[in-house]
Amino acid sequence: MEQPGAWSKPAHIQCCSIAEDGSAAWDTNSFEADLRISLGNQPSHSRSEPSFTIHNRSTNATALTGSLTSKTAWRASSILFFFKSPQEHASCLAVRCASLEAANTVESLMDKALGLQQRQMPEGASGRKRAHAEGPAESLQPEASAQGDGNPFDAKIDKGSAEMYFKYYGMLQHQQNMLQDYVRTGIYHRAITSNKLDFRGKTVMDVGAGSGILSLFAAQAGASKVYAVEASGIVGYTQQLADGNADMGKTLQVIHAKVEEVDIAEKVDVLISEPMGTLLVNERMLETYLYARDRFLKPGGKMFPQVGRIHVALFSDAFLHQEVMAKATFWTQDNFFKVDLSSLYGSAVDGYFSQVVVDAFDTNVLVSDPASKILDLGTCTAEDLQDVVIPLDLEVKTQGPCAVHGLACWFDVLFPGTNNPVWLTTAPGQPTTHWFQLRCLMKAPIYVPGPGHRVQGSLHLKAHKFQSYDVHLTLTGPPAQPGGPPQTSSGVFDLKEPYYRQLTPAGWWGQASAGVSQEECQAQQYQQQQQQQQWGPAEQQQWAEQVRQWASQAGLVHASAQQSGQQGAAAGTGQVVGAGQMGQQGQQGGQQAAGGGSWRSMMQV
């Protein structure tokens, strides 16, 4: 085994010089090289600290060498590193590894080298897991923690899912997407900086620090020390941001590790984090937040956030139901390049209805008051988050009959500031966040004769190893006809595979090729919407009947409802036939669906 101070075996890499404008010309200005890392801390060695050297294979000369610190070497993305000399305005090289495995290997040895150095520091000075400091690796081999060393995160999460997760959050553009959610970022800033009494002179841990923005907010509020813990490759930029805001950044200690791998000698006064995913619990980061609470938070310490609430309500949206049904009409073709696709139509319908719908919907589609599930993050356990059941007993509140198409969901969290408690909400009708809202759309709607009837059931969230949840929804409503059996509808949804919905009807994309601009198309849609808002009962009934026919043709309407004209009309009208500002777009989408068209959807983040 190599001793401290020895050089690692060479790693074959590709290098490129970074121009003054920050660009890298890989096609014309790159070269092959060998990267070696010294573990340092050996008196007989010429260096007493970790160091690196990059040797140009073509010229057989040293391209760059220097001390190995978080400011001279960092991982920028999945396979890309930056190395620079410690001197100000020194040259910088971009280093590209041949594979993700090779990049993990390089980072592993860097962690070993820095961990060995930190072992010589006073107790409490090291923010990395002490296992990193137990000795150097024999060669550039991934350390055990990269494969799963028994920590709670690795034990419950699929390795491939974790790698993709950290790769995603290690990219600067995805951090920008979150920062540009000004509702989210602004509320976090207000929650922290308007409660300086909770932060002034306090020690803080930022769980999953990302770009470090919340850590810097804590510094603005007067924190004396902030541990910014981040497992992804974004940490190089986190350190750069801290260095670029020196007055605040000097408070930060950036730690590149999973929270489950961190070992610091002190407890902290405050935990801050943004651990919320879609439906609050997606990505399962809340469990990591609770681990940090149990491991690092002082008794009586503050948590920002500390309370999470999931809210659910019945909704009626015939336009959305028809839109999703129409997505599967592709599979009704019996002569697709002389191939009959129709045998897969039923499976395609099931697949589309297994996706949760993520969008910002109008409050007019809600047909009940919400039920809520409260999660006290100060007391609940990780096991509580792995199996969440929300009982449902909801009263339908409409002026007439309606079709219940499923369950609408949103969440909010509380920052319990001493001076100024602050809520962050994702509720419909409130300023939209990058979480939007979520709907579980049932393939078989439940038809409710009128107000006052109750729909009962449960929403059951079961965590799985791919950092998400299976969502089981069961609803039971009144008989479709007097004396008949209760209606029951159920569905299973994968929270990790949502349908990100944008109401941009396919009609515009077709018109664009005919020379109609998007602005002209929107103007036409607006005029049609104004006309629809003036519809009388006869026009509304005609439209409802058309929607009922489409649903009947797709086999998604209960037979009892098909026999009832009033129930059939209810399937189309829902709560409000225009569904507010979405009504005309739903009408147009339904007309396109009848002709075999589709809707264009894209992720909005």
UniProtKB/TrEMBL annotation:
The keyword Acyltransferase does not apply. Its EC number is 2.1.1.319. Residues 580-598 have a biased composition (Gly residues). It is found in: Cytoplasm; Nucleus. GO terms for biological process: methylation. GO terms for molecular function: histone H3R2 methyltransferase activity; protein-arginine omega-N asymmetric methyltransferase activity; protein-arginine omega-N monomethyltransferase activity. InterPro entries: Arg_MeTrfase, PRMT_dom, SAM-dependent_MTases_sf. Keywords: Chromatin regulator, Cytoplasm, Methyltransferase, Nucleus, S-adenosyl-L-methionine, Transcription, Transcription regulation, Transferase. Residues 309-473 form the Protein arginine N-methyltransferase domain. One of its GO terms (cellular component) is cytoplasm. Residues 119-153, 580-605 are annotated as: Disordered. PANTHER family: HISTONE-ARGININE METHYLTRANSFERASE CARMER-RELATED (PTHR11006:SF10), PROTEIN ARGININE N-METHYLTRANSFERASE (PTHR11006). This is type I protein arginine methyltransferase.
